[in-house]
Structure formats: structure tokens, C-alpha cells
Amino acid sequence: APIISIRNLTKSYANGFEALKGIDLDVEKGEILALLGPNGAGKTTMISIICGIVNPSSGQVLVAGHDVVKDFRATRTMIGLVPQELTTDQFETVWNTVSFSRGLHGKKPNPAHIEKVLRDLSLWNKKDNMLRELSGGMKRRVLIAKALSHEPEILFLDEPTAGVDVTLRKDMWRVVERLRESGVTIILTTHYIEEAEEIADRVGVINGGKLLLVEDKTALMTKL
Ligand code: ADP
Ligand code: ADP
Hints:
By secondary structure, the protein is an alpha/beta fold. The chain has eight helices and ten strands. The strands form two sheets. The protein has a six-stranded mixed sheet, sandwiched between helices. A four-stranded antiparallel sheet has the order 2-1-4-5, with helices on one face. The longest helix has 16 residues, at 166-181. It is globular and about 45 Å long. The two termini are 30 Å apart. 38% of the residues are buried. The structure holds adenosine-5'-diphosphate (2 copies). One adenosine-5'-diphosphate is lined by residues 13-15, 54. It comes from Rhizobium azibense. Keywords: ATP-binding, Nucleotide-binding, Transport. One of its GO terms (molecular function) is ATP hydrolysis activity. Residues 4-224 form the ABC transporter domain.
């Protein structure tokens, strides 16, 4: 069975705007899927619903068979999200932010894992710094560390390389590659076709709240 199953998903925001107009999609375990589309296409809305932080208006999303609305406690332990911006308390330390994130995802403390994540992302020497003391790039690294704090089976990256420097971009793809090798399912959003082409197995093209097509990368490249 697919690890993510989305059926007839719609989202209208409180102001009446229809951000998603009936999305159907299955994602297999271990694949890297890129959601490609321009700004405003509905990419962030879609991954926010799968991650359980925005409620759908209608339709269903199952993650490993669990409904993301009704069974949020089960799905939150499986999912890690790297959002575009840091909303965490700026006066907290890197170590506390990342450790706390693990607890929020319903996992028991594991300092050895937190240390590994921080070392992998070159954040170890910043572990006692407050977030407000970090550069923009370091804050992006903290976002990735938070998303990996609880050893998720599915990782979402929202516009991961927008405004990111070359070093971080390389580090990010190294981390993604290692996660892929360990069987983690990865979904990223992007408006760069090169990015989708470079790392994804499959690409979904989204625009105006509709998934226009979903293709293996090689098949897609012959169509564009
Ligand atoms: P929901 O339907 O999920 O309750 P709301 O319409 O109440 O969502 O909006 C949630 C938040 O998003 C509010 O803080 C609102 O100001 C903000 N918001 C409203 N319009 C937009 C928009 N066009 N783009 C991004 N954020 C928006
Ligand atoms: P993308 O990630 O592809 O840029 P989004 O999912 O962020 O697209 O947004 C899709 C559309 O929904 C945009 O037109 C955006 O302005 C609108 N939107 C996003 N959040 C809200 C909100 N809370 N309230 C109203 N409109 C929103």
C-alpha cells in the first residue's frame, strides 16, 4: 500500500479562496516526489494538510493508513516538516529547540540522536546559542534539525533551497541522499524545474490548486 494516499482533497480558506480543488495522489514508501509549481499554486497548503497543521475542507489524507485529521497523534511521529520560516522562540537555544521538537512529535528523549543530527548539519558548535544569535543560513539548518529530531519516516521540505547558499544546499542534498538510502520518503516543493529534475524520482505539476500531472522524472522531461 502507498505510504501516503490522498483522495479528492479540497481546501477553501476562511476568506473563501479555493487553494486546492480536488487532489488525488499516492506516494510510495521510499520515493522522492517533487511538487513543482509557481507561487500560489497550492504547494504549501497541500503539504501543510498532509502534515496535519492545516485542516482540509473535504477529502481524505491517509499516512500509513492513519487519517491525518482524526489520528494526528499517530501521524505526527512519522512526519518531519522543514517549513520555509522559523517560527520557534528566538530566545531558546539550538539544543533545546531541537530536543523539544522531538518531544512535540511524541518521541522519548534521545540525546545521542540529537547530537548526531546537530553534528550532521554543522550545528554542534552552536548548540548553546540562542536562535536570535544565528545567521539566516544557520536558522535554516535548525529547521532541518527540528524536522529530523524524531527520526521521521516521511520528510517534507517546503521550498528547501529558496534563498539558501551553496554550502547549505550541498549539505541539504547530502542529508537527503542519506535519508533516501535509509528508506525515508521525501516530498519537496519547488518552483525550479532544475531542482525537481536533479533529485526527484517523480514530479507532480501543480497549478491553481490542481495536480495537472504526475510523472516519473524521465517521462516528464520528454514532455516539457
Ligand atoms: P483557515 O481557513 O485555515 O482558518 P484563515 O483564513 O483563518 O485560515 O487564515 C489563517 C492565517 O493565514 C491568518 O493569520 C491569515 O491572516 C493568514 N492569511 C490570510 N490570507 C492569506 C494569504 N493570502 N496568504 C497567506 N496567508 C494568509
Ligand atoms: P504555494 O506554496 O504553491 O506558493 P500556497 O499553498 O502557499 O501556494 O497558497 C495557495 C494560495 O492560497 C495562494 O493564493 C495563497 O495566497 C492562498 N492562501 C494561503 N494561505 C491562505 C490563508 N490562510 N488564507 C487565505 N488564502 C491563503
